[in-house]
Amino acid sequence: MSNSYTVINASAGSGKTYNLVQRLLMICLKNPGQQKVIQNILALTFTNKAANEMKERILSWLKDFTDQNFEKNQNLKNIQEALKKEGANLTLQDLHERSQKLLDYILHHYSKLNIGTIDKFNSRLVRSFSYELGLAKNFNLEIEAEPFLIEAVDKMLDKIGENEAISDAFMDFVTYSLDNNSRVNINKSLYNTAKEFVKDIHY
Predict the structure, then answer these.
(1) What angle do CA 15, 10, 41 make, to 5 degrees?
(2) Could you tell me which of 1, 64, 136, 141 has the fewest CB atoms within 10 Å of its CB?
(3) How many CB atoms lie under 10 A from the CB of residue 62?
(4) How far is the C-alpha of 21 from the C-alpha of 195, rounded, in Å?
């Protein structure tokens, strides 16, 4: 069985979500009685906002596809054309009927719509293998960085005098501050700098 991969590489606001929703619905509408296939599709995004937007768009499109004036819907026509290029010649009536079945299935099995964030998926994955990873069954996932940054700064300061590289960097920082006649709270300064490194703009 051959696998095919489609890569969508585009900047923000250029229509990636549109293409992803279209591809997902094409998979579900391509063959009759395939509405349950949606439970086998996993879609991951970076933010809850993007995940919710994708869910809303899927339901919105399907609602429009099941309306009486479905034959005028451009998104449905676009799916028909895209499927035609893949060798599936379907009428708009076919897609309309399949959309109704798919919408009914999703509304009755909403938890089967596997669209979420990467971090939530990883959390579920780790929780599933908590025993193998040597973790407690009731472990908590902490996403608030502040207490860990404070601890990291304290641990680093404890190494001054023991670790040569850290000691040299610390002395350079103190000398720089003295040369500029500035009084610096070392802990606070290092903590504020560390906060910048955990923002989404940094790798």
Answers:
(1) 65
(2) 1
(3) 22
(4) 35
From CA 185, how far away is CA 6, in angstroms rounded? 52
Residue 125's alpha-carbon distances to 55, 77, 130, 172, 193, in angstroms, are: 22, 38, 9, 44, 32
Phi, psi of 42 (to 5 degrees): -115, 120
Calculate mean pLDDT across residues 153-161. Answer: 86
* Residue 100 structure tokens: 């109704």
H-type helices in 144-185, by residue range? 146-158, 164-179
For the record, the structure tokens of 48 come out as: 């809850």
Tell me what pLDDT residue 201 has. 59
Residue-wise DSSP of 51-92: HHHHHHHHHHHHHHHTSTTGGG-HHHHHHHHHHHHTT----H
Q: Which residues contact 67 (CB under 8 A, 6 or more apart)?
A: 73
Residue with token string 């009428």: 91
Considering only CA atoms, which of 145, 36, 53 is closest in space to residue 101?
36
